[in-house]
Amino acid sequence: MSKVRVLVGTKKGAFILTADGKRQNWEVSGPHFAGWEMYHLKGSAADPNRIYASQSSGWFGQIIQRSDDGGKTWNTPGSNSEELKGPEGFPKGESNKFVYEGEVGKHMWYDGTQHPWEFKRVWHIEPSLTDPDTAYAGVEDAAIFKTTDGGKSWQEMAELRQAKGHLWQPGAGGMAVHTIIIDPKNPKRIYIAISAAGAFRTEDGGLTWKPINKGLKSQFELPDSDAEVGHCVHRIALHPSRPDVLFMQKHWDIMRSDNSGDQWTEVSGNLPTDFGFPIDVHFHEPETIYVVPITSDSLHYPPDGKLRVYRSKTGGNEWEALTRGLPQQNCYVNVLRDAMAVDSLDDCGIYFGTTGGQVYCSPDGGNNWNTIVRDLPGVLSVEVQTLK
């Protein structure tokens, strides 16, 4: 029988949740890297036992962790254990160097002045679809890095910052590459999203990048609502069978593009609010998408304290609330942009985690929800692997 492995990054460690295809009885492993912010974990499609993880601390810096046995053991591919130990025995975070290439340059700061690029942390790791030793890292301040040696070394794909990087500006949570999507039909085509710069696309493996923000409106964030860059994109998703069709959760608005991002159309429809962070697509139904509406950009909790996932089976505009098994009173949590995922079982499972430490699973496409685990530290990311 198939199995699922759910990779959960939290503010105080990583957790690995496993179950068989029924997704009823779960084993919980963790916390791995207890006390550390684990921004993102993701497994390789080419080798499911290869998992990359971003381990971060404001005190000790950034470390990339790697597992080659499905999360049972971990290693820092760029350093030996002695190089990671400081005088008090704490990891120094020097195993992996993320160094901007060439003249670093500047981007816009919150007050509109120019500010130099400064590396802070890795937000998102996207392994290659075909090579377990190749992966991409989206970082803050916004840039994309690539490894071809399993995480031992990382090189910036500096051409991205040439796409009007001097006009990029941080959002409330910083300025980071938080979404990386590799086209499953054309691996040289990669989509990325940045808060708050917008969405970008490369057709040549990163040699050149193009802003793809036409149709986005940001009247509250930008003086020019039709600006080519500067939009606060929260998340992008696509279905692997239709990589030209993109769905976006923006700062406000749910958007859709049917031409690889060249033009966007709003599909928020009848949602109670179109502010939120995650968005995802049903594995077997390319027109079925999921979002979690949040009250507003100043009130990061569900409307009326009712946690509801909304599903559209029409690719947007027409939405239904999915509530069975979710708290419908006194619930004031948030669901962050990397904290929703889907599996590829015949009955597609939908997963998400909350800032209150709950991880939910629906084994039937959203109709019914069960709590896998609760009372974890605040959840930063959720990814799922379907294991045959």
Keywords, separated by commas or semicolons:
globular, four-stranded antiparallel beta sheet, single chain, mainly beta, 29 strands, 388 residues, 0% helix, 39% strand
Describe the structure.
The chain has 388 residues and is mostly beta strands. Helices cover 0% and strands 39% of the residues. The chain has no helices and 29 strands. It has strands at residues 3-10, 13-20, 27-32, 37-43, 51-57, 61-67, 106-108, 114-116, 121-127, 135-140, 143-147, 155-156, 176-182, 190-195, 198-202, 210-211, 233-239, 242-250, 254-257, 265-266, 276-281, 289-293, 309-312, 320-322, 340-342, 350-353, 359-362, 370-373, 379-387. The strands form eight sheets. A four-stranded antiparallel beta sheet has the order 3-2-1-29, with no helix packed on it. The protein has a four-stranded antiparallel beta sheet with strand order 9-10-11-12, with no helix packed on it. A four-stranded antiparallel beta sheet has the order 13-14-15-16, with no helix packed on it. The protein starts with a strand and ends with a strand.
Task: Write the topology of this structure.
Layout: E1 3-10, E2 13-20, E3 27-32, E4 37-43, E5 51-57, E6 61-67, E7 106-108, E8 114-116, E9 121-127, E10 135-140, E11 143-147, E12 155-156, E13 176-182, E14 190-195, E15 198-202, E16 210-211, E17 233-239, E18 242-250, E19 254-257, E20 265-266, E21 276-281, E22 289-293, E23 309-312, E24 320-322, E25 340-342, E26 350-353, E27 359-362, E28 370-373, E29 379-387
Antiparallel strand pairs: 1-2, 1-29, 2-3, 4-5, 5-6, 7-8, 9-10, 10-11, 11-12, 13-14, 14-15, 15-16, 17-18, 18-19, 19-20, 21-22, 22-23, 23-24, 25-26, 26-27, 27-28
